[in-house]
Design brief:
Number of helices: 8
Number of strands: 0
Shape: elongated
Largest sheet: none
Oligomer: single chain
Radius of gyration: 19 Å
Number of domains: 2
CATH superfamily of the largest domain: RNA polymerase sigma factor, region 2, helix turn helix motif
CATH class of the largest domain: Mainly Alpha
Order of helices and strands: HHHHHHHH
């Protein structure tokens, strides 16, 4: 999947080509759902948000200009949608965000590995929950989606310096939560 190919497909969508839109949808659906899930905490709400993102993407096809990567444009639409939903007070579901298997590095193969992986996932969830919306967006785009700082800056409509600062603060939060796992438990005084 070449980025130029996505830009070409989006240009075709602007001309009314629904098959090109279907191709873009198939290529990017899972990534957009994962991204939205980090904001909503719910798979169902994330899928609903992702659907709305793709509707907005389709409707804005005529305004798309391939001056930036397609994924940058896509995640700008997704970020704006998620931030707007949070501002409107959209409530997250009761179910906690659980990172996908590839979001967190696999634990070594040991008998206690599933417990450690679950603890690590819980630490990441706590860190994400403690982040500001913009920190969560920048961190997710960088660490989970692999976008470079310049693309994140465009998606968040911020400077690269601001993005680096957001990612740094978010990374410190994750480090704090993960380091808390390594701290030895306090022994009760007898």
């Amino acid at each position: 999947m070449a980025e130029d190919d996505d830009a070409a497909l989006m240009t075709q969508v602007a001309r009314g080509d629904r098959l090109s839109f279907a191709t873009l949808f198939d290529r990017h659906w899972a990534r957009v759902v994962r991204f939205c899930r980090r904001f909503t905490g719910s798979e169902a709400l994330a899928e609903e948000a992702a659907q709305e993102v793709f509707v907005k993407l389709y409707r804005s096809a005529g305004r798309y200009r391939p001056t930036a990567k397609f994924t940058t444009f896509l995640f700008r639409v997704a970020t704006n949608h998620c931030l707007n939903e949070l501002r409107r007070g959209a409530q997250a579901a009761q179910e906690p965000f659980v990172p996908a298997a590839h979001d967190v590095a696999p634990a070594p193969e040991r008998a206690d590995a599933p417990l450690e992986a679950a603890e690590l996932q819980a630490a990441v969830v706590r860190a994400l929950d403690g982040m500001s919306d913009r920190e969560r967006a920048a961190f997710s785009l960088c660490r989970f989606e692999g976008l470079p700082y310049a693309d994140i800056a465009q998606a968040l409509e911020a400077s690269e310096a601001a993005v680096k600062s957001l990612i740094h603060r978010a990374t410190l939060q994750v480090m704090h939560e993960v380091q808390a796992l390594a701290a030895p438990p306090l022994k009760e005084l007898a």
